[in-house]
Design goal:
The protein is α+β, with helices and mostly antiparallel strands. It is about 55% helix and about 15% strand. Strand 8 (about 275-280) and strand 9 form a beta hairpin.
C-alpha cells in the first residue's frame, strides 16, 4: 500500500520514478531511526547544558556562601580582637574604682591611695582610647605613630600596671634589666599591650599552681648591634609541645576561656608593625618563655 499516488505521464499511467516511500521498507525505517537518533541527541545536548548550568549555579552559590561566612568570620574576629584588647583596661578601671571607693568610705579616708587609684583609672582609660585609636588607624590604612622608646621603662611600667593582679595571685616578679640598652623606635601603646599580654598569660598559666613558686622573670638584653631582646618567663606548667608550633595562630588557645587571639595579635604587632620577632619555648624551670627581639 502506497503513501500516495505517483505522478502520471501523458498516457495516464503512473510514473513510479517519483513514487513515495512504502511502509516496511529500508527507507521507512531509516527515516524513523534517524529521527529518533536526532531527537535523543538533542535531548542529551539539552540535558548536558542543563547540568553545566546547574554546576555553575551551584558553584556560584557556594562561592557566595563562603564569601558570606568569611565576612561573618572576619567581623567576629575583629569584634573578638577589640574585646580582647579592651578587657584588661576595663577590668583595671572597675577594680581601681571599687578600691578607691573603699579608701574614701573609711572613717578616716585614705586620700593619697585614692589619688593613686584615680591615676591608674586614668591610665587605663588612656590605654582603652589607644586601642580604639589603633584600630581606627588600621582600618583607614594609616601608619601607627612611633617614638624613641626606653625598653626598660616600658617593662617596668607594664609590671606596675599589673601589680594589683600579681599581688592578688601571690606572684613575684624578678626583673633583670640591662643598663646599656639604646632607645628603639616603636609605638608605645602597641608594645605595652604585647608585654601586658605576655605577663597576663603568665599570670593565668600559674594561677592554678600550688606546689611550685609563682615567679615571673622579666629580662632585657642587647643582641649584638642589631636588636634589643625582652624575655618573659614563668614557672607554670609550660606549653604543650604539640601546640608549640601553632601557638601564635589565630583562635589557638590553651585556656578554657581564651579567645586564642592574644598571641596572634602580639606576633602581628612585633613582626609586621615593628619588624622584629616573637618566639616561644619551654622555660628553664619548666614553664613558658616568650622572647621579643626588636630592631635597633
Amino acid at each position: 500500500m502506497a503513501y500516495g499516488r505517483g505522478l502520471r505521464n501523458n498516457s495516464g499511467k503512473p510514473d513510479h520514478i517519483f513514487a513515495l516511500t512504502t511502509r516496511f521498507t529500508v527507507g521507512f525505517y531509516a527515516v524513523r531511526v534517524i529521527s529518533l537518533l536526532v531527537t535523543k541527541t538533542v535531548l542529551i545536548a539539552l540535558l548536558a547544558e542543563m547540568l553545566v548550568l546547574y554546576s555553575r549555579l551551584s558553584s556560584a552559590y557556594r562561592s557566595l556562601k563562603r564569601e558570606r561566612e568569611n565576612k561573618l568570620t572576619s567581623a567576629e574576629a575583629v569584634a573578638s580582637v577589640i574585646a580582647h584588647e579592651i578587657k584588661q583596661p576595663v577590668v583595671a578601671i572597675t577594680l581601681s574604682a571599687s578600691a578607691g571607693r573603699r579608701y574614701l568610705d573609711r572613717a578616716q579616708p585614705d586620700v593619697e591611695k585614692a589619688k593613686m587609684l584615680f591615676e591608674q583609672i586614668n591610665d587605663a582609660a588612656v590605654r582603652t582610647n589607644e586601642v580604639f585609636d589603633g584600630f581606627h588607624r588600621l582600618l583607614r590604612g594609616e601608619s601607627q605613630p612611633r617614638e624613641r622608646l626606653n625598653v626598660n621603662a616600658l617593662v617596668r611600667d607594664t609590671i606596675q600596671l599589673l601589680r594589683s593582679d600579681l599581688d592578688d595571685h601571690v606572684m613575684r616578679v624578678n626583673m633583670d634589666l640591662s643598663s646599656d640598652l639604646p632607645a628603639i623606635p616603636g609605638n608605645r601603646g602597641q608594645l605595652r599591650e604585647v608585654v601586658i599580654n605576655l605577663v597576663q598569660n603568665a599570670i593565668d598559666a600559674m594561677a592554678a599552681t600550688t606546689n611550685e613558686p609563682r615567679i615571673i622573670s622579666a629580662t632585657t638584653s642587647r643582641r649584638g648591634s642589631d636588636s634589643v631582646v625582652v624575655s618573659i618567663e614563668d614557672t607554670g606548667p609550660g606549653i604543650n609541645p604539640q601546640k608549640l608550633a601553632s601557638i601564635f595562630e589565630p583562635f589557638v588557645t590553651t585556656k578554657t576561656t581564651g579567645t586564642g587571639l592574644g598571641l596572634a595579635i602580639c606576633k602581628t604587632i612585633i613582626e609586621q608593625q615593628h619588624g622584629g620577632t616573637l618566639s616561644a619555648a619551654s622555660g628553664a624551670r619548666g614553664g613558658a618563655r616568650f622572647e621579643i627581639a626588636l630592631p635597633i
